[in-house]
Write a structure and sequence with these properties.
By secondary structure, the chain is of the alpha/beta class. Helices cover 49% and strands 12% of the residues. The strands form 4 sheets. The protein has an 8-stranded mixed beta sheet, with helices on both faces. A 6-stranded mixed beta sheet has the order 1-2-3-4-6-8, with helices on both faces. The chain has a two-stranded parallel sheet with strand order 5-7. α3 packs antiparallel against α11, α19 packs antiparallel against α25 and α28 runs antiparallel to α29. The relative contact order is 0.06. Bound molecules: nicotinamide-adenine-dinucleotide. The site of nicotinamide-adenine-dinucleotide has 24 residues, from α13, α16 and β14.
């Protein structure tokens, strides 16, 4: 069966419905393009007046076929693949009869490029419908004429924004900028508008095929656009630190395309597309942020054979920063929430947090008063444990104190049913130990949220020694239910995310002690692609908390009879804490904070004099990244991590590990285990045994292997 079904109406209009067999979404690839070429061939028939291109699926078309792309090994393949698609699209717009896109659902990436090659575009005015060129988010650029047509349709500046940032446009926004021809209320009206346009425009032509064509807002030579070109590269460099070649290639394709005729611009775009498709960065990003993320969302880390579950009523113990955030995201997902604290005032304050977020959303037009009130009605603040009766899941987010946690666990378990799951949001305390306070340790697990809960996409699920598969599956289902991404790890000190994240900040702090200039350290963090530099980050987390966790760990290890090696950066943390510089919350840490923002504390270089000989930035960047990747590899080796996908996604979503690297273990894969081992040994010789490569990587280097699930 063809991927595009054709139906000729009495009015002489041919409706081409894209509906790829066996796929949940339409994606641009050979199958779809063949179908479109077949539809186009029918236009040669004198009885056919025009063509409406639409979709039989919920989405119009979701983008390019990444499975096909992942098989490309030489730059000729993406170049030719992209040119072949363009040839069909160019014929489509030049064949003389009107072609209209009837956009019934998301038109993204290659999907939008198909629509742009039509003479008119109508879309259903649904706030959920997304229009955009998100390729850049996977290290690619629109290679089906997206940069060429958008810059000619909506102007160079808008095209730069759409392709360079990869965000979604809502239908009204796309209409406002001239990307769409009109909006429809529903599918019937959509088809009616498309047909009417064909009847009214029997000789349709694209604006860029008119001899009088001018770029809206000017081409790359015009003074107005020259201004854009004078600042766009610096803005991009400030955001990306040169780590995302696709961003540069998109700018180049649009700039050069803005100096050339349509067909030459198309060839230039395909060349840059090939450069992106061949880049290690796109391989890293597609592998992790597409394949591994999709595998996780489909339940790769969820135990099989447990029926899917739904949380209807959730109990939260502790209405502080984390409890309030968890209540908010859960109520947003339609779950009834009991929010319990020691005083009614504290519980109410937790609910007020939601009120604050929602009031802001209403003010900005992102929500309505009705939706806000409905969400708030689902949160019941209380001090009464009896209110927890009937909860499917209870999450404790009380103080990080074993005794307090044990107390609330026992009180909650006295009320909730045998079938309910109990979770702890602890950030540091091993789950197996906390489960000792439970009557039913098999139903006990860790659900580690990140702050701020409403913004952070990850939840780290921790499996205790006695946690059952059913409990894990139910925790997993809940995380998906609230729209977050779950990774599953085994119990261990610091679990996975806190443990590896800690190596990043501590490495930066150790450099300070060695006499590296604090500004070089901070810049190295940003150059490495991390969202925040190490010293600023430790200030956010607070130095006193870091010290407290280290002291606790030291005590716990001593009790277990295990050795403790203090990180060389810890002395600095202790020293700053002693003089009251405990971080941002005190207004003083590595930085000074005031109403104007923050500045590195000038006395830092008095306390830690800057060495006369400064290392190159590359050395600092390598230290920051190797420290993390090596620790992640150790977590894998020790069985704390259960999968490579969890390691990579957990690192990017949990603490912002440089996304262009594809995650903490992909960092090793991309470099190759032998190169990683060699460099890690060099770093170990200079800076200490913490850089000795994890045994698992040494093994991979010897066997020629790589991390894979
Ligand atoms: P918080 O101090 O803001 O809130 C704790 C709340 O628990 C307070 O409202 C307190 O009144 C309440 N509480 C204390 N004892 C209680 C009891 N016996 N019964 C009921 N309520 C009680 O702390 P937080 O930052 O929300 O952290 C809570 C938990 O989440 C801790 O275990 C922490 O380690 C963990 N966590 C925190 C973060 C973070 O970034 N803050 C991140 C992940 C996990």
């Amino acid at each position: 069966m063809s991927a595009v079904q054709l139906q000729l109406g009495d009015d002489g209009i041919l409706v081409a419905t894209m509906d790829l067999a066996g796929r949940p979404m339409n994606v641009v690839g050979d199958e779809l393009m063949t179908g479109i070429a077949e539809a186009m061939a029918r236009l040669a028939d004198a009885a056919v007046k025009g063509l409406v291109l639409t979709s039989g699926k919920a989405d119009f078309c979701a983008g390019g076929d990444l499975d096909r792309m992942s098989k490309w090994t030489t730059p000729e393949q993406p170049f030719e693949g992209s040119m072949a698609m363009k040839q069909v699209l160019r014929q489509l717009e030049l064949q003389g009869k009107p072609v209209v896109a009837a956009i019934n659902g998301h038109a993204l990436g290659g999907g939008l490029e198909l629509a742009l090659a039509c003479h008119a575009r109508f879309a259903i005015d649904d706030p959920k419908l997304k229009i955009g060129q998100p390729e850049v988010k996977l290290g690619l650029l629109p290679g089906g004429g997206g940069t060429v047509r958008l810059s000619r349709l909506v102007g160079i500046q808008q095209a730069l924004q759409i392709c360079g940032e990869g965000g979604d446009l809502s239908p009204p926004k796309a209409l406002g900028m001239g990307l769409l021809t009109g909006l429809a209320r529903d599918r019937d009206e959509l088809m009616a508008l498309a047909r009417a346009w064909i009847q009214a425009n029997p000789k349709a032509k694209q604006p860029w095929d008119s001899p009088k064509f001018r770029f809206p807002g000017g081409d790359s030579r015009s003074p107005a656009v020259a201004q854009v070109w004078s600042i766009a590269p610096s803005i991009a460099a400030q955001k990306t630190w040169g780590n995302y070649p696709a961003v540069q290639h998109i700018m180049s394709a649009i700039f050069e395309g803005g100096l050339l005729d349509f067909d030459a611009a198309s060839v230039v775009e395909s060349r840059y597309f090939a450069a992106c498709a061949m880049s290690q960065v796109s391989k890293n990003m597609i592998g992790t942020l597409w394949y591994q993320l999709n595998a996780i969302k489909k339940g790769a880390s969820r135990p099989e054979g447990v029926a899917k579950s739904l949380v209807r009523k959730l109990g939260i113990l502790g209405a502080g920063m984390m409890g309030a955030g968890i209540a908010h995201v859960s109520a947003k997902a339609g779950i009834d929430v009991v929010l319990l604290d020691t005083t009614q005032e504290a519980a109410d304050k937790g609910k007020a947090y939601s009120q604050g977020l929602l009031d802001k959303a209403v003010k900005k037009g992102r929500s309505t008063p009705e939706k806000r009130d409905a969400l708030l009605a689902r949160i019941t603040p209380t001090t009464d444990y009896a209110a927890l009766a009937g909860c499917d899941l209870v999450i404790e987010a009380v103080f990080e104190d074993r005794a307090v946690k044990a107390d609330v666990t026992a009180k909650a378990e006295a009320v909730i049913g045998e079938g309910a799951v109990f979770a702890s949001n602890t950030s540091t305390l091993p789950i197996t130990g906390l489960a000792q306070a439970s009557r039913r340790p098999a139903s006990f697990l860790g659900l580690h949220f990140f702050s701020p809960v409403d913004k952070m996409p990850l939840v780290e699920i921790i499996v205790g020694k006695e946690t059952s598969d059913e409990t894990l599956a139910r925790g997993f289902d809940y995380v998906l239910q609230i729209g977050k991404t779950p990774i599953v790890v085994n119990d261990s000190r610091g679990f996975y995310t806190s443990r590896v994240f800690g190596t990043y900040v501590m490495e930066g702090i150790a450099m300070l002690k060695e006499g590296v200039h604090p500004r070089s350290i901070e810049v190295a963090g940003l150059q490495a692609g991390m969202p925040m530099p190490p010293l600023a980050l430790q200030d956010e987390v607070s130095l006193s908390l870091g010290l407290h966790v280290a002291e606790q760990t030291k005590k716990d290890l001593a009790a277990e009879g295990k050795p403790w090696t203090e990180h060389p950066g810890m002395g600095v943390v202790r020293q700053l804490c002693e003089i009251g510089r405990i971080g941002k919350k005190a207004g003083r840490g590595f930085y000074d904070y005031d109403d104007d923002g923050k500045r590195l504390w000038p006395e830092l270089t008095t306390l830690y004099p800057v060495a006369a000989q400064q290392p190159p930035q590359r050395e600092l960047i390598d230290r920051l990244m190797f420290a993390q990747a090596n620790e992640a590899a150790r977590c894998f080796e020790e069985g704390v991590l259960r999968s490579v996908a969890d390691a990579n996604i957990g690192s990017i979503f949990g603490w912002g590990f440089a996304p262009f690297q594809g995650g903490a273990l992909q960092f090793v894969n991309a470099m190759g285990a032998p190169a990683f081992v060699a460099r890690a040994r060099e770093l170990a010789a200079k800076y200490g045994p913490r850089f000795e490569p994890a045994a698992v990587v040494v093994k991979l280097a010897e066997s020629g292997g790589r991390f894979k699930d």
